[in-house]
Fold these 2 entries.
Entry 1:
Amino acid sequence: MVAPSDADATRPPLVIDEVVEARVGSHLYVRRTDADRLDVANVAANLPFVLRTLVGISALAVGANVIGVIVLALIIAAINSRVTAHQQHVILVVAAILLVGTVVLGVSAATLVQRRTLRWLLRGDRPDDEDARRALRMPRDMAYIAAILWTLGAAVIAVTTALVDLRPATVVAVTGSIVLAGLSSAGVTYLLVERVTGPVAKLALESAPPRSAPVLGVRWRLLLIWLLTSALPILGQILVFTAPAGKTHVIGVSIGVCVVALILGALSTALAARTIGLPLRGLVDALERVGAGDLAVRTPIENAGEIGLLQSGFNDMVAGLRERDRVKDLFGRHVGSAVAQEALRSGVTLSGEVRDVVAVFVDITGSTKRSRETDPGEFVALLNRFYEVVVDEVESNGGLLNKFEGDAALCVFGAPVQLMDPASAALRAARRIRDRVSASAEVEVGVGVAAGPVVAGQVGTESRLEYTVIGDAVNEAARLTELAKDVRQHVLASQAVIDQARDSERSAWHAAGEVMLRGHDLPTCIWTA
């Protein structure tokens, strides 16, 4: 035994959708990710899955051909008034030989046609587009093989009936019976193989989702059901009643043909209903989950036809919704959730409006010197902790953190979303920011609060916009911030803000005198808390 190398020990685990093993329906399947490495363990693990599929197809081939033989035997029995026992025996022996031959040749031909499918299934490979399309053609290929073999069988039976000296009309009737039996066998084969190979189709559709309507879609499936449930019994009845009569068993055989047709019709309709109904039920459930806000839902693609197109389109739609939410989240993180909602509501516009707002300006004391003395990574982490406090308090009080300006932040209350009491909200946020920053003991800040009319809107170009507010209230808040750095309380508000606040919030503040702010002709009354 060869010991595993270090390279083997470090290989990543075999995965399918981030797991080593996965179940496709009720089947265990292992997919490998290393395209250059054939793992014998993978082949051993996937062998039961492949064998179950092959055995299922073989059993269905036998069953479908047996159904065809039953149809053939019933119709031949109906026309046996001109067929001797020896002739009937020869025909039935040849038919039995044909049954065994068609099963053996059919399974062999299907294995040959689908050998590439069996190869990637055993190896656990992810099929390319061509291999995936070949795997999806398996039901159609099996139906074609069944039809071809039954056509050849019809020719053999026609020659046999001619050799046993049957009349031409009887030869035509027997040959027509085989054609009907072959149609039944091919139709049932298609529907049953499609059902059995569903897990294989899922694996193939993972790699090659349907992008266009198939040749054999829902319309052709319904036509096939009509053929098995309506056309077949009608043609069978025509053959029965146009054959030489004279014996009472003709009626019994006619009833038998109808019963077989009814069974075929029920089976075909049930398979078609399941093929269409279950995926649609799954889509309805998935839509309900999306409507409830679950965008992680993904429906498996189970069909290469119109249903598969619908499932693939649903997955694409949900992926688009996830991408939209991700962009919306990133947009909100950059400009603020309130600005993002306003932009989504009104679209791109370069217009502005005059709004009465309360501006809060927050700035760290001595940040320039500290940035030179502190490791850059530590300083950025410090700023992030500081901004976490600012953002939390501003947004919890209904405000907008409009700009990060290095070590400072401009916050706005009253735009773009109007507030019932922006002054009280701004004063409360300013106090809490001061208290929480002081409690952390990492930095000292100055906080200034001012109120007044400003011009608010999106400025820039159609390719690059920024929501901003411009006005005296912003300038006044910034200048009060510089003064607040030198007072013990570290927070100052203008008289205009205090006048607009509720009594409950105003009671937390007291007058701190008057100051002459740059750009103002009159002194400003200031308050602190």
Entry 2:
Amino acid sequence: MKKKIIYIAIALTSFSSCNDAFLNRLPETSLVTENFFNTPSDLSLFVNKLYLSESPKYWDLGTDNVVASEKDEILDLLRGNITPSTVGGWSWEQIRELNFFLDNAGKAQGSQELINHYIGIVRMLRGLEYYNNMVKRYSDAPWYDHALKDTEKEELYKPQDSRTFLVDKIMEDLEYGTKNILKDLKNRTVYNKWYAYGALARTALHEGTFRKYHDELNLQTTANQFLEKAVEACEQIMENTVDFELYTTGGPDNAYSNLFTSNDLSKCKEIILFKDYSNDLNIKHDVAMHVFAYTTNLSRSLMESYLVKQDQKAVPFSSIENYETKTFMETFENRDPRYRQTFMYPGYVRPGDSKPFVANMNLGGYPQIKFIPQDPLQNQWGCSYNDLPLMRLGEILLIYAEAKAELGTLTQADLDKTINKLRNRVGMPHMILSELTTDPVLEKQYPTVKGEMKNAILEIRRERRVELACEGFRKDDVFRWKAGKLLELSQGIYIDKLNTVFDVTGDGVTDVGIFQNSEAVSPIYKKKILYYLEEKGESGYQKSSISLSEGDHGYIVLTNDLANPKKFIEPKYYYFPIPDKQRERNKNLHETNFWNE
């Protein structure tokens, strides 16, 4: 066994270190192929390494859900900094690694069920890698179903295959996974059949809606087949009520938050797959420091998405009188409980602190508390070890509802077993299909939504944005719905008056203020937390990092967003260019559509 471990270590080191001109190659030596891939245990050892590549998401950087100062690829794209000569990507290392496994796994001897299980996992991962890192970025790309050899010149230098061809192959991989990966849920940190169904549903929903709304592809007539696949895959999970149910421990005011701060999700029936972290094993992450008031704050747009409880109904925030000028404190009145379990609320005391935290106005003023651990020792760089979900039942219910609405087949019964279950968890009034009316704000955000199910689609999009906030879905959602213009400007909290201080902790005592500059500060405010629109330099006062949308009042915006506005070019920015150097090496590659103009 020790020799096999050495062999596979050599192979995997080669996988991660080799990089040639256009495809990441690895040495396919007899040392690896003859002494490995002989038993299901060998296959298991190989697959176990792949879990390391799973990266949980805990924010929505680069989207309209956040006000961000941190550098991000989407921000670079919108500011015109992404070009064929500067762009990254077009990496084939993971696909080649997976193909290498598939080329050799068939020689294993032993339980065919186990062998097919591991092949199913790797085919599923190949399908996901192709879709997430090739189709989503470039639409067209070469399809490779085996690890290429140096002698295969024609294949090495082939042009792109079409999106339709790629997606058909991807669906074959994902469906193979659903048929062959085992159901065992004893450990929710390993790939299982239910994750395979979820991966199929997630991918099919993306492709179906992308084709429906992106008329530049001329694939609208093929959209429904993918939406139907999404529905069918979700049903497999939703019908398994023995293994899956929404997490409700903590009640309406805490259950949703508890799901993302738990140190042990192993027994949580909402979880389909999670990343296990451990203090004892020193397996940790940085979520607490990344999301809380250091590089991003949440946005006005996301804040306004949370419904208001009024007269036993859930109504849009935009229906409330003077909603556009609500102060930080006022925005929390009668809101969906998920709002204060995601956004820092007045009086919030960070674990380990002795007094309420005061929002950082330099980042917009709405700190994120979703995912923040309750143990104060975890709220330091590199010290968080709360488990992080990779897929959960809540997402599956949203996929099902959206796909049914897009197909035009959504019923009240469908809402009751999806959206309304999510609302039950937080004590929000139900969504009633027959009572839905058009919200002008949603209609403006998503002008391409038409038809009899328009209001249902819009409300399901709102519910998805709220339930999945900060879980890394927003960019993909905006892209597949062809709503890229939403990414152009993010705003923070509303400031009704400049050169004064106000209360953000709810104790009636003023905490923080925004002033034109230090000279505008009255001596009575000197001990408060103060922010300035202008900062004094050698040549006089210059604009600081923040501004107000109306000059002397309004929403906090990052000054850089005003000086260097973000612009989304339709439909070009729904795709990424192929790096110039790759096209120089393979003359048969054409530039990504809409980047070759």
